[in-house]
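User: I'm designing a mutation panel for Interferon regulatory factor 5 and want to avoid disrupting the core. Could you give me a predicted structure to guide residue selection? Please restate the sequence first so the numbering is unambiguous.

Assistant: Good idea. Sequence first, for numbering, then the predicted structure tokens:
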Amino acid sequence: MSAQPRRIRLKPWLLAQVNSGRYAGLQWLSAEHRLFRVPWKHATRHTPASDEENTIFKAWALETGKYQEGVDEPDPAKWKANLRCALNKSREFQLKYDGTKETPVQPYKIYEVCEQSEGTDAVDDDEEEMPNLMELSINPRISDPPPFSSRTFGHVVPMCSELQDQGGMVDQGRLSNRLQELNSLPLPAASALPGPAPMMETSSMGDVQHHQPCKYDLLSSVPLTDLDLKFQYRGRTVGSLLVSNPQGCRLYSGHLEPSPEQVDLFGPVTLQQVLFPGTSEVQNQKQRFYTDALLDVMDRGLILEIWEQDIYAVRLCQCKVFWSGPGTPEHGPPNPLEREKKIKVFSLNDFLQGLILFQRGEAPNPPPFEIYFCFGEDWPDKKPKEKKLIIVQVVPVVARILTEMFSGELSWSTDSIRLQISNPDVKDRTVEQFKELQRLLQSQHIQGPWTPNVP
């Protein structure tokens, strides 16, 4: 059995290992020492020991006391998970590229070193005061939760189906009633780029081939009902998800699945079912205890229903839920969701009207569109989101895209764009040599057989 785990500050230790050159493939990618590459081959319990003898993952396990050579059984997969968790939790590193999710797989990840004030390191437990269990907002347990009328959920006939073509793209003609005024406004130069419209991130080029050909009009590919979800446990992102179900989703914890006979308990079966992330990666024991207490009463969940591109929330779970978003005071009093009551939390028409006013110069800022749900604690209040046990951020993708288009801030970060390029083969290297020869000839004003004649 391994010794008691030791607290080790991740940042100085890891940067020292990168500088040491001791581990193959662990190296700096930028001269200013901001980006570095970590080799990330798939490891299992059956990986030959010789392949795992000199890795950064084993070194971290040894350094933190979670593995003792000659005492514990080697577990390369666990070593890798330990370092991955530490990096994900640390505010001093940010994942910029994950090659293990590419097709074909690229066995490495790229991280950026982030500047933080001294003394902040995710490996140290957060010893700040946790809320008292009795203060968590949970409805008293009752032996049999009262059913509610299925009329709480409208008969969903998603307008999105009437606006999309066979490939799932939005039909610009049918969308004109909602976006006619937006279309008539001049687009910023940044949004008038030639070529296909930006697409949502895909896992491989094969996924892209199943879509209809992209259209040059950016508005033709705006996903009206997609939702971006981000789960945060005391300020640390523990999961994210793109929901593309045109009817919405149910956020829940536990093992109870909906059925046509239990709509009153769990909502429509047509909703996408989204599980809350577990707490296995939460290091602070108090935080894990209180978070589990909340997750334990989220079996029925929170419904996010889409109706005519507006978003409605229905709280079913015993855990109380508070929210903030467009139309709510930024520093107002706590804003609870009444149980089993449908509340509109986002209006597409109101957002579009606000965007039009901003584009005309009649409003100083684009309209807000982010929605926050806080589980089991008052929100909003004087505490920042980073201090709340469970926060779920919901972003209507259509609002984010339109805001970027009309504010001239199209997002081209490495987090949202994954270039799909194969490793060069012999023919590719030959073509590169031809290109280099062409550049040399052009620099000397000599035309080669492959150089086009320019009149």
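For picking mutation sites, this is relevant: The chain has eleven helices and 14 strands. The first helix runs from residue 10 to 20.
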